[in-house]
């Protein structure tokens, strides 16, 4: 079944269990600082592997030691769905092992 866009309330409920993630412009966003450039790239590759597993893909931007992530669901016209929340949860599980910390 096609994913349904979440309401603002549903998004807020999901975000309460995802510290560091925010909803902005119909996307879920997270900004990480890593211990260096290679750790940032390593986390990007790890996130990419998770994305391939889930069949759901975020925008990933590495700038030196920073990884910026933004995701929504293209198939519903660029809205936030459970697929985005699921990906965010999986990313939160893997990020700490890379030394990721919250960036502004
Ligand atoms: C066939 C494939 O699963 C789809 O095209 C997937 C790929 N990754 C995707 N990623 C995102 N963010 N939204 C989508 O709708 C989407 N669709």
UniProtKB/TrEMBL annotation:
Cite the Gene3D superfamilies for this sequence.
Transcriptional coactivator/pterin dehydratase
One GO term in the molecular function aspect is:
4-alpha-hydroxytetrahydrobiopterin dehydratase activity
- Report the EC code(s) recorded for this entry: 4.2.1.96
Which Pfam families does the entry mention?
A: Pterin_4a (PF01329)
Q: Which domain of life is it from?
A: Bacteria
Q: What class of enzyme is it?
A: lyase
Q: One of this protein's GO BP terms?
A: tetrahydrobiopterin biosynthetic process
Provide this UniProt record's keywords sorted from A to Z: Lyase
Name the reaction it catalyses.
(4aS,6R)-4a-hydroxy-L-erythro-5,6,7,8-tetrahydrobiopterin = (6R)-L-erythro-6,7-dihydrobiopterin + H2O
Give the UniProt family note.
Answer: Belongs to the pterin-4-alpha-carbinolamine dehydratase family.
Name the record gives this protein: Putative pterin-4-alpha-carbinolamine dehydratase
Which species expresses this protein natively? Streptomyces hainanensis
């Amino acid at each position: 079944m096609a994913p349904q866009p979440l309401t603002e309330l549903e998004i807020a409920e999901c975000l309460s269990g995802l510290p560091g993630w925010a909803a902005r412009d119909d996307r879920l966003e997270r900004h990480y600082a890593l211990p260096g450039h290679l750790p940032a790239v390593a986390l990007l590759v790890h996130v990419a592997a998770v994305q391939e597993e889930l069949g759901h893909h975020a925008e990933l931007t590495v700038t030196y030691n920073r990884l910026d992530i933004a995701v929504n669901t293209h198939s519903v016209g660029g809205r936030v769905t459970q697929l985005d929340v699921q990906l965010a949860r999986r990313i939160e599980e893997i990020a700490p092992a890379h030394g990721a910390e919250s960036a502004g």
